[in-house]
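Q: Here's a chain of 290 amino acids. Please give me its 3D structure as tokens.
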Amino acid sequence: MSTSVNSNLMSIAKQMVTYMGMSTVVVGVLGNLLNIMVFLSLKTFRQNSCAFYLTVMSFVNIGQLLTGQLSRVMITGFNIDWTQTSLFYCKFRLFAIQVCSYISFTCMCFATIDQFLATCVHVYWQQWSNIKLAQRLIVVSIPFWIIYGIPYLIFYDQTVSPATGKVSCTDTNMNFRQYHAYMNNLILSGGLPLLITVLFGALAFKNVRQIAYRTVPLVRRELDKQLTNMVLIQVVFNCFAVLPYLIMTVLATATNISSNPGSSAQFTLAILVTACVYYLYFAVSMKQIY
């Protein structure tokens, strides 16, 4: 592949990340703030455990967009890389991205399971859907993921290229790089959350279809339907938004495609495109309730 074609591909990638990425940040932050305002202002949602999970998820989604997508736009679109000038930001950015994504996916899993429990026929299972349990799970989950993310503060560092003298922020431990690609990216931020949400989302949908035939107060019935629809739409969207990027990041680690200049340009474009789509998960959420 010629140099001009490679240059064109990189130019396309730069424009896409700049415009689509910035749009994602602006729309995502405003949308998540709107979610938070609605969930906290209405008493019906404040007392609902599923809405509580979605509220926490909206907060961490804002953090993910600001630390992940915004910095990606600045790096790719404007050649402003704060990780090269600040060791603290080099370490903190990757730490914040991982912790926010883990908490977001955890909240999504909890919300889906909660809706399955809330719509169950048996009262025993319905009792497990309550705001106190939700608060306890979040209080335990957030410190757990913060502790789990500490290796990113340790293994990510600024390195200087001997050939170009350019400073870059990268992981300095090969074993941790492999662990990050397969365990963190493929399982914790991909396969496992999607499996849980698809499974319990389908079960919740089955339960909701039977609500009309059960003796349930009208307000509770409509709220369960509304929240379940929100969760199900989010689950379907997640499959299309998250999977492509996770597959590309694993391929980037498992293959030596960067050794081929032509293939490397195409691969870089694919990663940047799928990354933009990936961040739509954190930006597009629960808008159908308004």
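Q: Can you summarize the key feature?
A: Residues 249 and 255 are 10 Å apart (CA to CA).
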